[in-house]
C-alpha cells in the first residue's frame, strides 16, 4: 500500500480507503489526467513511424540534382540509407546489379531521361531472375498530381504516389504503409 501511495502522490492524485467490518475494504485512486487531442495522437504515430524507418535502404531515382540532394538529406536525417540513381535506366541497373533484398523501397521520379519512371518500374517488376522485383514497394514522386497521373503510376506497377514538392510527413506515412511498419 505504501508503494501505491508513493506512485499516486507522484502523479498528483489521491488515494482513499473505506472499510466495513465483515464487508471488506474499498480503495479509490483519483488521478488528474488530461484528454489527448487527435493532433497529439497523430504526432505520436508520426514519431513512431520515423523511428521504425531507421535503417531502411532506399533506392532514390531522381534526375534533378537539387531535388535529389534535398530528398537524400531529409531521408538520411531519419536514419535511412539512400542510394541514388540519376535516371530510370540507372535505377534498373542498380537494382539488378545488387543482391536480392539490397533495397527495402524505391522512390521513383516519373519524368527522367534515358528511361522514365513508368518504364523503369515495369522493367523492375518483370525481372525474371529477381523475384524481389515483383515485391519491392515502388513509390512515384512527381509534380503530376492529377487522378489520371496517380492511376498511371498504379498501372505501371507502383505501390504509391507522392506529389512534388515532397512533404516529408507524407513520405514517411507512404513508406511506412508500404512496408507494413
What is the architecture of the largest domain at the second tier of CATH?
3-Layer(aba) Sandwich
- Amino-to-carboxy terminus distance: 41 Å
Q: What percentage of residues falls in helices of 4 or more residues? A: 40-55%
Radius of gyration: 25 Å
- The secondary-structure element order is HEEHEHEHEHHEHEH
Q: What is the total domain count?
A: 2
Widest sheet: strand ordering: 4-3-5-6-7
Give the C-level CATH assignment of the largest domain.
Answer: Alpha Beta
Strand content: 15-25%
**Alpha plus pi helix count:** 8
- Secondary-structure-based class equals alpha/beta
The named CATH superfamily of the largest domain:
Response regulator
pLDDT < 50 stretches: none
Task: Give keywords.
181 residues; Rossmann fold; 5-stranded parallel sheet; two-stranded antiparallel ribbon
Task: Please describe the topology of this protein.
Elements lengths: L1 H9 L3 E7 L3 E7 L7 H15 L4 E5 L3 H13 L3 E5 L2 H10 L7 E5 L7 H9 L6 H4 L2 E5 L4 H9 L4 E4 L4 H12 L2
How would you explain this protein's 3D organization?
With 181 residues, the chain is α/β, with parallel strands linked by helices. The chain has 2 domains: 1-33, no CATH class; 38-179, Rossmann fold, CATH 3.40.50.2300. Helices cover 45% and strands 21% of the residues. The strands form 2 sheets. It has a 5-stranded parallel beta sheet with strand order 4-3-5-6-7, sandwiched between helices. The chain has a two-stranded antiparallel sheet with strand order 1-2. Helix 2 packs across helix 8 (168-179) and helix 4 runs parallel beside helix 5 (117-125).
